[in-house]
Amino acid sequence: MSDCKFEILSPAGSFDTLVCAVNNGADAVYIGGQSFSARKNAVNFSNEEILSAVRYAHLHNAKVYVTLNTLVADSELKEAYDFTAFCYRAGVDALIIQDLGILHMVRSYFPDFEIHASTQMTVHNAAGARLAKEMGFKRVVLSRELSFEEIKKISRSVDIELEVFVHGALCMSYSGQCLMSSFLGARSGNRGACAQPCRLPYTLLDKSGKDVSGRDKYLLSLKDLCLVDEIDTLRECKVTSLKIEGRMKSSDYVSIVTSIYNKYRNGGKVSGEDLSILKNIFSRSGFTKGYLNADTGRHMLNYNQNNDKVYSNISESVKSLADELKSITPPKIPFTAKACVSMAKPMELTVCAMGKTVNVTGSIPAQEAVSVPLTEERIISQLAKTGATEFELGDAAITLDEGVSLPVKEINELRRSALSMLTDAVCLPERLGVNGQFQPCIGSAGFDGKVSFNAEVMTLEQAHAAAMAGFDKVLVPYSLYEKHKAELDGLPALAAVILPPIVRDMNPVDDDILPCEVYASNISQINYASGHTVTADFRINTFNSYAVKLLKEQGVHSVCLSPELNLRQIHLLTSSLPAELIVYGRIPLMTVQNCVVKSAHGRCSCTDDVYYLRDRKGVKFPVFTHKGSCTNTIYNSTPVYMADRLSELPREGICAYRFIFTTETPDHIESIIFNYKNSLKYDGDFTRGHYYRGV
After folding, report:
1. Angstrom distances, CA of residue 321 to CA of 227, 251, 452, 642
2. Which pLDDT band holds residue 402 (cuts at 50, 70, 90)?
3. What is the pairing mode between strands 620-626 and 533-536?
4. Short-list 69, 76, 6, CA closest to 33
5. 504, 125 Cβ separation under 8 angstroms
6. Rounded to whole angstroms, how far apart are CA atoms 44 and 47?
7. What is the average pLDDT across 202-218?
8. Would you give the distance in Å from CA 388 to the centre of its chain?
9. For residue 452, which of 573, 566, 578 has the smallest C-alpha distance?
10. Do 432 and 112 touch, CB atoms closer than 8 A?
11. Span 535-546, mean pLDDT?
12. Residue 113 phi/psi, 5° resolution?
């Protein structure tokens, strides 16, 4: 990595906001189109506006990144291809993507299109960054949960650009690992429609039902991030890009935040006045430095308030400053010109700016002047009439035969043509071209044998119960297998290990103890466990046929499909690998680094017992703590149940049905498999998940 200056990367939900970002010092701006953007509720950009955005940004030395960072179903892949082709031809500098299928598509059809791994891919360790580079990413947007030391380790280990969030809203869950909005309200964060249930109040209860936190506290609502005074530390970490959150925020916010980060891009002490301005324009109960100092707890949360007034507390002085910053206009771009007018020949004009040169030739030959001959001064005067363009005439060299005449209209037309071509030369990069037309995936895994029943468990007791109940395979978490390897290897059913979704570099998995079969819960695990049979677990968010194809090319043996797929989408998915479907159990809704038990108690105090988050309606969500990684997993309040609907699930390519057991007792586990083998209805609360949503 070079020691070049930071890229300041600003958000823009509209063209006007993009202009404000560029005019206030942004080196790059990230925007979304009308589809496939993780901020579906932002104004976002039409195709025409994307063209204008690229033109404006490139003419002012800024880049444009487009977020194509949602999960894409097979029925949407052609539209995603068309949009990618448009962005490619429009001169967009890079795509920010999450979906492995989109990655495969871009690599196949647009091999020289720069791609960045979205934070939705949950890249949080050196192995993940290394695989991202091998897959073709030029940059990774790291998970926001990392410390300075972890970022530094990744930068030293992998030669890839690193982008980190430095300002704005923080998600409570690891990005890409949140299904809470999706399962509670059918508004998927992975599909760009998060309803932010994390901003609502909850009460933490212990196993006995005792109130631990106090009633209706904001246990999942993090304060906003601000790292403007940590620029020097980020430089030590060899970070490439400083990312400001806020594609749904105002042009006032973008103008102010961009200008202040631009002011301190070289580090130095930040004034109290500037910090106050940043807090006033938008912050929830002040700021946090997030996870950068590895210091988690209640101080990171808006624990006691909902911050409903965050938009109405902006002072008049800050509003006035925002108006001033929004009125900034960039200087015009100087261009040099060389003109040659020779008798009986068309005029030739060469213009140069921003390292680009364009030559144009007129269509009308110069003639002998009848009365007033053409002068150098007149040519320069006409070349200087650039009007509303971004250009202004700098040096001009004129070669002119004596006594010639040329219509002024011809000079003006050459100027307009030359500046138009110069704009294209500056704005449109040279590219290889599109590598063929989009083709859907064809073929399948060819699996039509017996569908196995796989039980995911959390305890040793559940593992034994699942094996005795007749499950074909028992899936155990790595932490449980590490403690009870010998006993689990002796189960009458095959034992496979589910690797943790979060594996920090400071606390790696011991590959040597793993059994033959493992489930990869993060892309960092797809091919690092060589010699093992690897299943890509549902946390990798496999959503379409192209994603399965890429995983197969990476050596994966089977895949557990995303629980956000509905029946129609599953039927359309052409799987080139044997696939597994989740048919029972509580779906994990969040993977949380800022422990809710620690926040509730004000100190580290979690036990191995289950806790519960109770919402305003009295619904309880089980919370499990993981001391090894100091993370929490929050599960849905009710299980997915499909015993009486198994016949409606697709069979082609499906090799296994997955059961997720969390709080179930051995007797409950036995009754569940009995129900499924006999297609019985459930007598408790349950959900069908996404199977029938949008079908």
Report:
1. 21, 12, 64, 57
2. very high
3. unpaired
4. 69
5. yes
6. 10
7. 93
8. 37
9. 578
10. yes
11. 98
12. -85, 120
Distances (CA, A) of 382 to 4, 387, 392: 41, 11, 12
Nearest to 306 by CA among 221, 202, 225: 221
DSSP per-residue letters across 135-199 = HT-SEEE--TT--HHHHHHHHHH--SEEEEEEEE---SBPTT---HHHHHHS--TTTT----GGG
List, for residues 410-449, the tens digit of each pLDDT value. Answer: 999 999 999 999 999 999 999 999 999 999 988 777 776 7
Q: What are the beta bridge partners of residue 397?
A: 338
Q: Which residues contact 362 (CB under 8 A, 6 or more apart)?
A: 346, 347, 348, 349, 406, 410, 413, 414
Q: Which residues pair with 533 in a beta bridge?
A: 517
* Percentage above 90 pLDDT, the chain: 88
Write phi, then psi, for 546 (nearest 5 degrees): -65, -35
Are 33 and 97 spatial neighbours (Cβ–Cβ below 8 Å)? Answer: no
Q: Is the pLDDT of residue 4 over 60?
A: no
Confidence of residue 608 (pLDDT cuts 50, 70, 90): confident
Q: Which helix (H) or strand (E) holds 252?
A: helix 251-263
Q: Which residues contact 222 (CB under 8 A, 6 or more apart)?
A: 169, 170, 171, 172, 198, 284, 288, 290, 300, 301, 302, 594
For tokens 């920090």, name the residue: 504
Question: pTM for this one?
Answer: 0.95
Cite the DSSP H helix spans in 345-458: 376-383, 408-427
Residue 380 has phi, psi (to 5 degrees) of: -60, -40
Residue entry with tokens 């979304």: 32
Residue among 201, 235, 329, 242 nearest 30 (CA): 242
Q: Hey, what domains does the chain have and what are their CATH numbers?
A: 7-170+223-326 (3.20.20.70), 333-427 (no CATH), 452-677 (3.20.20.70)
Q: Are 450 and 131 in contact (CB under 8 A)?
A: no
CA dist., res. 4 & res. 154, Å (int): 18
- Copy the structure tokens of residue 246: 């806020």
Residue in the structure block whose two tokens are 């580079």: 133
Q: What is the CA radius of gyration of the chain?
A: 29
Q: Distance between CA 692 and CA 292 in Å, rounded?
A: 41
Q: For 400, phi and psi rounded to 5 degrees?
A: -140, 125
Cα separation of 571 and 211, whole Å?
Answer: 45
CB 182 within 8 A of CB 188: yes
Tokens of 137: 């990413």
Could you give the CA distance from residue 682 to residue 600 in angstroms, rounded to a whole number?
A: 35
The CA angle 14-15-20, to the nearest 5 degrees, is 100
What's the CA gap between 595 and 598, in Å, rounded?
A: 5
- Of 105, 129, 101, 104, the residue nearest 117 (C-alpha): 129
